[in-house]
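quick one, two chains, predict together pls
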Amino acid sequence: MSMRPPALDLPIMFIDVRVTAGAVTILDGVTLTISAGMPTVLIGPNGAGKTTLLRAAMGLVPASSGLITWGGRESSDPRHRAIMFQRPAMLRRSAGGNVRYALAAAGMPRGKRHERADALLAEVGLAGLDRRPARRLSGGEQQRLALARALARDPGVLFLDEPAASLDPAATKAIEDIVRAVSARGVKVVMCTHDLGQAKRLAGNVVLLHRGRLIENTPATQFFATPRTEEARKFVAGELLV
Amino acid sequence: MFDRRMLIAAVAAAAVLSGAPVSAQDKSIVVSSTTSTQDSGLFGYILPLFKQKTGIEVKVIAQGTGQALDTGRRGDADVVFVHAKSAEEKFLAEGQGVKRYPVMYNDFVLIGSKSDPAGIKGMKDVGAALKAIMAKGAPFISRGDRSGTHIAEINLWKASGVDIEKEKGPWYKSIGQGMGAALNTAGASNAYVLSDRGTWISFKNKGGLVIAVEGDKRLFNQYGVMLVNPEKHPNVKKALGQQFIDWLVSPEGQKAIANYKINGEQLFYPNADDHNA
């Protein structure tokens, strides 16, 4: 009887992964395991390769060499993963319309979309803004709407690229609360941030990237208390890593 | 009718023209294993490492231990990797397997709701805990699917002097499903359930469930791996299958098993050097 499909996408493994664009090496020999549990937070200076790593883990960027696997498989239907980009594009329609579009794209039958969209908007604290044109929402609200769209896919793994960049503390807290709730529900969150405080508040483990290389991958408590590498120590101390 | 020789010739020509080395494409084996190795993510971690090293792709069929061994008996797998020593020894005795190698162990935990209706939380003796569940008629979910976990559960009842087939009442529900489903059912019905620790740790929907009993030696869960006997099943990929087994019990494979962690917690403990395991 139960010959079941392999357990979703976890762990996601990078084995000696290089990603190049022309002559530029964006990821350089990255070996990393993303397994179930608390959020994995990627940090590092601009251009360190965080976004590319996220996109590669989503399956949007192929490895130039090395191996990326999802639950042991080398290619994996991205149906159970979702990604939110740093600058999400709002569709020119209502907030609810944006979420219903995502639900339709995820294959949900029309009759169920309205109810589910309402639930998703409520989950990200946008209940009642269903009919507001998405582009007229504030920056923080747009970011939360983008999260609702990502969650519309009912992902097992959720990738967030700077989900709270340039938001004020209240809007940042709103995003973090959602991330925490989603993570507690068992969704694996992988996110990048420039905000060390945010990394401290959310991370189960911290991955430090620098110039396309993985410098450190340690449990968050250890990363901030006793960084293993000089680079991590500098980064945590707020020195510039260039 | 279509001439079969023509077809063979056409296929051969296609292979030559495409220049694809047929043998390289064929470097894969089928491993019949249990839901726990798959659902815990262990295979997702160690198989890519094995592939990277050897180029061999491992296709996994994840079932309960009993079914996994039956898949081997039918010759539908090259290797079986399961956790029920007595059933494995029977498999060997039937001549279905070549040799059994101990690989690793994990342990079972007895899960229950926070309200703990049988009052067993923190007990060190799993036998006493099971008897208390029965005495109080507290709900208990059994996998009931001949899986390694199901067999372990039956053995635990037996070891505590209970013939569960005879003594089970309405409190004992056999669901015939996998570990995740059993945990979900237990969560929804405030029931106790035996789970392997790996699935428990990676289980997402814990709700009001907690570990009630752990650490009793009888809760150990030993995994063994065997090559399916090529003399019985000539289609078995003997060399590739043995290569996988050799890697699993090698220092490198054993280290990979130990390195697999969720939230910093190790799930499986390699013990290939323990020949009594």
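Chain A is about 35% helix and 25% strand.
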